[in-house]
Description:
The complex is a heterodimer of chains A (about 375) and B (about 350).
Chain A lengths: L2 H13 L40 H10 L9 H19 L1 E6 L2 E9 L3 E5 H4 L5 E5 L5 E10 L4 E6 L21 E6 L11 E10 L4 E3 L11 E4 L4 E8 L6 E5 H6 L1 H5 L3 E2 L6 E2 L2 E6 L8 E7 L4 H4 L7 E5 L2 E2 L3 H9 L6 E8 L8 E8 L1 E2 L2
Parallel strand pairs in A: 5-13
Antiparallel strand pairs in A: 1-2, 1-4, 2-3, 3-6, 4-5, 5-6, 7-8, 7-10, 8-9, 9-12, 10-11, 11-12, 14-21, 15-16, 16-17, 17-18, 17-19, 19-20
Helix pairs in contact in A: 2-3
Chain B lengths: L1 H17 L22 H10 E6 L2 E10 L2 E5 L10 E3 L5 E10 L4 E7 L12 H4 L5 E5 L6 E13 L8 E9 L2 H7 L3 E11 L4 H5 L6 E5 L2 E2 L3 H10 L5 E8 L2 E8 L12 H4 L11 E7 L11 E3 L5 E10 L2 E6 H17 L1
Antiparallel strand pairs in B: 1-2, 1-4, 2-3, 3-6, 4-5, 5-6, 7-8, 7-16, 8-15, 9-10, 10-11, 11-12, 11-13, 13-14, 15-18, 16-17, 17-18
Amino acid sequence: MITSxxxxxxxxxxxxxxxxxxxxxxxxDDSQTLPDLPVDPLIEFAAPLEITxxxxxxxxxxxxxxxxxxxxxxxxxxxxxxxxxxxxxDAMAALVCIxxxxxxxxxxxxxxxxxxxxxxxxxxEPGSELEIVLLDxxxxxxxxxxxxxxxxxxxxxIVDVGEYPTVSLGDxxxxxxxxxxxxxxxxxxxxxxxxxxxxxGRIVRKQETTVxxxxxxxxxxxxGPLFDxxxxxxxxxxxxxxxxxxxxxxxxxxxxxHDKEFRLGTAMSDxxxxxxFGAAVESVDAEDEAPSGLRLTKISDSGSxxxxxxxxxxxxxxxxxVQLTDKASLKTALDRRVAGERMQIKYYRAATDDxxxxxxxxxxxxxxxx
Amino acid sequence: xxxxxxxxxxxxxxxxxxxxxxxxxxxxxxTNGRTTVLSMKxxxxxxxxxxxxxxxxxxxxxxxxxxxxGLAVTKASELExxxxxxGQNDRRKxxxxxxxxxxxxxxxxxxxxxxxxxxxxxxxxxxxEAFPIGSVVSGSTPRIGRMRIGxxxxxxxAVKNRGATMGITATQKMIDLSEEDxxxxxxxxxxxxxxxxxxxxxxxxxxxxxKEGDLIxxxxxxxxxxMEALSKVMGETAPGDxxxxxxxxxxxxxxxxxxxxxxxxxxxxxxxxxxxxGRTSRRKSGFSMVMQSDLPLPPEAMGGPVFTLxxxxxxxLIAHADRVTTYAIPSDVVQASVSKMLAEMxxx
Lengths: 370, 348
């Protein structure tokens, strides 16, 4: 949780009324003749985010606990604590620590393929390389997907293929102030001896894009999950006030609403961020083995080309299924995407003494123009 | 941080104006709100029967847990430097107290008290089986019987001593070796001392006259040329110990003496998580075993008992470490510590 950023988030909540920026992108006349954008396969690697209905038994227990009344004696807490402990192990198993650039936050796995919900300020920009630490200390490679800096919602995924423990999603509409909840996180970073840290609290206030609880949080808890007592995810830890009982979370509904954009790696903010290919190109005609297309003559350190491993001399032949003929054709293709999304690129690399010729299709995560 | 709260307040006003119904849980009904905590009836009764508060010059500074007739334990390090210490029960009747033994490995002190009758706590043992993580705990505020609610929140464990600090930031100074030496030592460079980069204002080093750019070569007669050697020395030093430094300043060789400080008084001032935690216990490390909770209790509540919902005691509060962390020494460790302290008293 970084103070200067907290200010920005909070302030942007005030002025934010814009819909997702991609809706407002100008439509180029030429685009009428372009084929449909190819679908990034990552969109299907995990099932769409959905609310999980609560079982009868949990529902009955929750009804007894979340009556809205002030507990009259400690018997209430026996009930609440029994219910909490019955779901705690499963909730903890899906908690992860996220390390990036020497800082550490938390996140929670919501699909067995390794899809993670976290806070935008934990993962930074789409495509950032992450280290994901499971509860038992297993360190895995991760990648930031979409972020929404208006709400501080962020998505990430575990790149290493595996089957991971998950939690189910709660129904934000059903949540009411006074409901009991618990928060998890790797407070101050992952700690082998201590494990993760659980905090008890109540929902204090519910708004469309932010939910307040009185679970106490600290640095390192950012991106960690807030659960209802049925063990369903209802929010993601985002920011705190100086008063220890003032904690803000991103409602789970934000992730469900923008699931597709997050999945595609979109950076959602008040301003749409145009993508930056990050290479100087020249048109080339087909010659011997080499196809026609755009040859990369220079590659910028911070652009999409560098990030995806393209090299000077490579000839990019297609972007999102469209044959590239000149700079304008590449620009037209880029204009249909925003930073954070992946673009389908086909490129050719001539054979060398050691390496065979490459002629393949890859998905390139688009960097933002800084 | 303060600015953010002000901004937050503004935001709430604006939002409230634009939404028809903004429902906020009243503060007295929150987890540790005035009304909610009244539900902790059994823990409150047990606290009133088995807790005394410790005072010096009319200021309460700790609680103590009654462990046997006329005997209580408290947080030992809170007694340091306190004079004319007396106790009070829940009705503010005065008690005479005397420290009779100290167990530094757990920061516990054994007190004899007289003047009022108090009931020993009833211990609950075998906590990992009988009282797993996620169980509700309750502890008293410095106003005995006014309770707070929390969870046993993480694995029990030892918390290693953080050692002591001089209040400096530093790097090790390396020099390039001659070709001959490279062959002899198998390395291209050699560490020649600790290069002082920054002095924490009012820290021990600043007070003792150490300066930026000084090169520390020895501490307490042991060569200290690398950061590794430095952290070893400081890890073995306790706050309050004297350090004698050999220092190179330009052409001069100096001997500088200082009293090592607690990391709580130096490093923590620059730690973000500590900055957002308000007041925390001065000694928050160096315990053989702790049970962790999220009880929001101030440093003055340490030494008091931690209760289960039925009013039995699972430990003695030992440190409010940060805004989400309050440690207690678990019941079995407290009981063993008390037996050990009693045996030592018997030997004397």
